[in-house]
Amino acid sequence: LKGTLASEPFTRSRRARGEADPTFDLLQRHNFSVTPARFSALSSASRSSRSVSPSRRKSLLPGASTSLCSALLLSGTTLPARVLFPAFQMAVPWGNAMGPLALPHPVHALPHGNRKNFPKFDGSGNQSTDSHISAFIMSCSILDVTHEDVSVRLFLETLQGPAAEWFQHLPAGSITSWATLRDAFEDRYKPSEDAFTLLSRITHLKKEANETMRDFVARFNALINRVPTAMLPTPENQKCFFVNAMSSKVSFLLLQERVATLPLAQAAAIRIEDNLIISGELRKESGKA
């Protein structure tokens, strides 16, 4: 983290000259509720708050001084989710509070191991998406990465040049999981698939454990919409593929609904998931929801 406040507190020379402080502006842009007086107090406190570990500092605000990050941490301040991801400072337009990434809590710390050996991808056409993803998964296994949010953030570190720029221009809030990132990446850089390959993907599609039902419905429909009309599965088969993509518990509950069409099955699946979350059963089933 490159400091802007370590030697020049906002309360004095910068404000005296009428200059805006970049870290204060960054906090405001990310809807972090902090008054100038509160910010000045944090800045002053930061000069005596250097005992926080570097790994925790890095989970705080990109662009802020290390000492200010320590003060924010010690103050018990909770920052919005989008400012907790310094791993992709080069991939996310930090001036835009509504970037592509919208990972749910909790957000886990990045691994301490050497990440220099992770594969890189620039979208030049010299690398296949399959080989890049395989090499990335292998690198994650070496560092014992187990959390999905960590995998997403590490994958963004592998994007370079045009590929990193491509990520910047994805729709706001469109990347909510490893599944949505992988699908977006493959849709952009994988050679066009023929209809038989698409049908195979639909047949074997599974809902990810940490994927919301609404996100999965959108992902399923996006695949269906890419199949040529002449080769579309029958409506009954589309519904069956969707039901089979669920966990055994949700599939069983869906079958009990006896819905006749895919849209009705998808609406029922969303309702079932909402009810399971309210009752606490989904937490017991996945251990993560």
Provide structural commentary.
The protein is mostly helical and 289 residues long. The protein folds into three domains: 1-79, no CATH class; 95-191, no CATH class; 195-286, no CATH class. The protein has 15 helices and no strands. Helix 10 runs antiparallel to helix 11 and helix 12 packs parallel to helix 14. The radius of gyration is 23 Å and the shape is globular. The relative contact order is 0.07.
Report the portion of residues in β strands: under 5%
Per the principal axes of the C-alpha atoms, what is the gross shape?
Answer: globular
Low-confidence stretches: 1-19, 29-33, 45-97, 284-289
What structural class should be given to the helix and strand makeup?
mainly alpha
Rg value: 23 Å
Region (Disordered): 1-22
Pfam family, one: Retrotrans_gag
Domain Retrotransposon gag: 154-234
Protein name: Retrotransposon gag domain-containing protein
Throw out a few tags for this protein.
single chain, 289 residues, mainly alpha, 3 domains, disordered N terminus, disordered C terminus
Give the topology, please.
Blueprint: H1 10-16, H2 22-29, H3 36-46, H4 54-57, H5 66-74, H6 129-142, H7 148-157, H8 161-168, H9 178-189, H10 195-204, H11 213-226, H12 235-244, H13 248-257, H14 262-279, H15 281-286
In short:
The protein is mainly alpha-helical. Helix content is 52%, strand content 0%. Residues 1-19, 29-33, 45-97 and 284-289 have low confidence and may be disordered.
